[in-house]
Design a protein that fits this description.
With 492 residues, the protein is of the alpha+beta class. It is built from 17 helices and eight strands.
C-alpha cells in the first residue's frame, strides 16, 4: 500500500480542524442559549434520535434537560419546548415572538413559501386572514356545513354497509368522506368515493404524509446540500405535489371563465375576486402560486388529520368494546335513530369525553409543525435568537402527567368529573394554540363528533376473528394508526 501524499493528509487535517473550530464557535455564540445533549461535530445529536419517532426522543430528553432545551440535527440548532405551562407560555403569552416558520428544506421545496402553513411575514398574515374569514363565510362552524356533514355521513354509512360486516381497511373510505367536506368549501363539489381523481389525490397526500415523517426526510432536512444530490424521497414528494397542483390549477383556470363577484360559490372564487381587486397593487399576495399552495394546504390538512383521528377512534372502539357500548347506550338514549347534530353534544358528556380522549391519546401532531422566533427573545431565562427553529412539543402537552391522571392510557375519565359531567382540561391542545393554531379547528370538531356518532349509531365496530390490535403509531409526519382491518356490524 502506498503512503498517502503528505500534502493531502495535511489538507484533510486542516479541514477537520477548521470544521471543529467553526463548529465550536457556532455553539458558543449565545452563552445563554438553552443547553441540551452534547452534539457531535457535523452530525449533531442524530445518533441519539429515534429516527422513526423523533418526538418520543424529544419527550424523553425533557426529563433530563427540563422544559426548555436544545438539540442539534446536522448544523441546525433547534429549541424544544415541553409541558403545558411552557408551551402555552410561548404560543399564547408570547404569540408574536413564536409565530414564525423556519425554512425547512423539504417543505420549502414543496411550497416555496406560498400558502398559509409554511409561509411567513406579511404573506402569511394575508393568507391566514383570508382563510379564516372565507371559511366562516362558507359556513365553517355553522348550520350549512353541519348539513353537509350530515349528508356525507349518510353516504359513509351506506358505503360501509355495502361490506355487510366483512373486514375492510377503512383508510380510503374515511379519507374520502372527510375530504368531501373541505372540498365542498374549496370547490363546491362532491366526489364519489370511487372517483379515480379523488383516489389519486388522496393516495398522493397519504404517501407524502408518510414520507415527510420517515428517517430519510430527517436526514434530508439536516443535510440538504448533500442529500439533494442523491436519488431520494424529494422526487416522489415533488411528483405527488405536482399532481395535486395540476388538478388545482386546472380547477381555478376553469372557474375564472365563470367568475361572478356577486355570486361567489367557493373559496377559490373568493380568492379570484381578491386577485382582481388586487391587480393595481405592486405587492401582490393573491397570486396563482399562493392560490395553488393554499388550496393544497387546506385540502391536505382538512382531510388528513380529521380522518386519521376518526381511524384512531374506530381502532380504539375495537380495542375497548366496553367503552364503545357506553357510547352507544348514550347515543340510543339521547338521539335514538334521529340524525346526530352538534347541539346533541351538550347532552352526551360521555361521548364528548371519548371524542376528546381519542384526540388526546391519538396524538395526531406530536411534534407540532415547527415554529421559528420572529425576533430575539429571552424566554424563561434563556436567550433565543431571531430565526431559531422551535418545536412546541404537543405530545408533551397531551401526555402531561400534571394534567392527565393516566397519560399513557386511553381513559375518557380525563374529561369527566365524579358525577359523569363533561369537564374541560386546559392541557387539551390538539390543534396547537396561538397565532399558528389550526385554522379549521371548529370544522374539525364538528366533523369528529358527527361522523363518530353516526358510525357508532349505525354499527358495532369489531376486530376480524383472530386479529391483533396494535396501538403503536405508524411512521409519518402525523401520528396515524398502523394499517388495520375492521368489521362494521349493522345495529339495525
Amino acid at each position: 500500500m502506498s503512503i498517502a501524499d503528505p500534502v493531502t493528509v495535511l489538507s484533510i487535517i486542516l479541514c477537520i480542524f477548521a470544521a471543529i473550530l467553526y463548529y465550536g464557535r457556532k455553539r458558543n455564540i449565545h452563552p445563554n442559549f438553552p443547553s441540551g445533549p452534547k452534539p457531535l461535530p457535523i452530525i449533531g445529536n442524530i445518533p441519539i434520535m429515534n429516527m422513526q419517532r423523533p418526538y418520543e426522543t424529544f419527550h424523553q430528553l425533557s426529563e433530563k434537560y427540563g422544559s426548555v432545551y436544545s438539540v442539534q440535527l446536522g448544523e441546525e440548532k433547534m429549541v424544544i419546548l415541553t409541558g403545558y405551562e411552557t408551551v402555552k407560555d410561548a404560543l399564547v403569552n408570547h404569540a408574536d415572538e413564536f409565530s414564525g416558520r423556519p425554512k425547512i428544506p423539504l417543505f420549502h421545496e414543496l411550497t416555496k413559501g406560498h400558502g398559509v402553513i409554511f409561509s411567513n411575514n406579511e404573506n402569511w398574515k394575508v393568507m391566514r386572514r383570508f382563510t379564516l374569514s372565507t371559511l366562516r363565510d362558507f359556513g365553517m362552524g355553522k348550520q350549512p356545513i353541519e348539513s353537509r356533514i350530515d349528508e356525507e355521513s349518510d353516504c359513509l354509512v351506506e358505503k360501509i354497509n355495502s361490506y355487510k360486516g366483512k373486514p375492510l381497511d377503512n383508510t380510503m373510505v374515511i379519507n374520502a368522506a372527510v375530504a368531501n367536506i373541505i372540498v365542498s368549501i374549496l370547490l363546491n363539489h362532491r366526489f364519489d368515493y370511487e372517483d379515480p381523481t379523488l383516489l389519486r389525490l388522496l393516495k398522493g397526500i397519504n404517501d407524502n404524509t408518510k414520507l415527510l415523517g420517515c428517517p430519510m426526510a430527517m436526514m434530508y432536512n439536516a443535510f440538504p446540500s448533500v442529500m439533494s444530490w442523491l436519488p431520494g424521497i424529494q422526487k416522489t414528494l415533488a411528483k405527488n405535489q405536482d399532481e395535486m397542483h395540476k388538478f388545482i390549477r386546472e380547477t381555478f383556470t376553469a372557474q375564472k371563465k365563470q367568475l361572478d363577484a356577486n355570486d361567489q360559490r367557493n373559496l377559490i372564487d373568493s380568492f379570484l375576486v381578491k386577485q382582481q381587486e388586487e391587480k393595481p397593487n405592486p405587492e401582490l399576495f393573491f397570486t396563482n402560486e399562493n392560490l395553488t399552495v393554499l388550496v393544497t394546504d387546506l385540502f391536505a390538512a382538512g382531510m388528513e388529520t380529521t380522518s386519521t383521528t376518526l381511524r384512531w377512534g374506530l381502532l380504539l372502539m375495537m380495542k375497548y368494546p366496553d367503552i364503545q357500548r357506553k357510547v352507544q347506550n348514550e347515543i340510543d338514549k339521547v338521539i335514538g335513530t334521529s340524525e346526530p347534530l352538534v347541539a346533541h353534544r351538550k347532552d352526551m358528556p360521555y361521548t364528548d369525553a371519548v371524542v376528546h380522549e381519542i384526540q388526546r391519546f391519538g396524538n395526531i401532531g406530536p411534534a407540532n409543525i415547527p415554529h421559528a422566533t420572529t425576533q430575539d427573545i429571552t424566554f424563561r431565562g434563556y436567550f433565543i435568537p431571531k430565526g431559531t427553529q422551535v418545536i412546541p412539543l404537543l405530545m408533551s402537552v397531551l401526555y402531561d402527567k400534571n394534567h392527565f391522571k393516566k397519560p399513557k392510557e386511553f381513559y375518557p375519565e380525563h374529561f369527566l368529573d365524579a358525577g359523569g359531567n363533561f369537564v374541560k382540561n386546559e392541557a387539551f391542545m390538539p390543534f396547537s394554540a396561538g397565532k399558528r393554531s389550526c385554522a379549521g379547528e371548529n370544522l374539525a370538531k364538528m366533523e369528529l363528533f358527527m361522523f363518530f356518532v353516526k358510525l357508532l349509531q349505525n354499527f358495532t365496530i369489531q376486530a376480524p376473528p383472530g386479529a391483533t390490535l396494535d396501538l403503536a403509531p405508524a411512521v409519518g409526519f402525523t401520528c396515524c394508526p398502523m394499517s388495520y382491518m375492521m368489521c362494521a356490524v349493522s345495529r339495525t
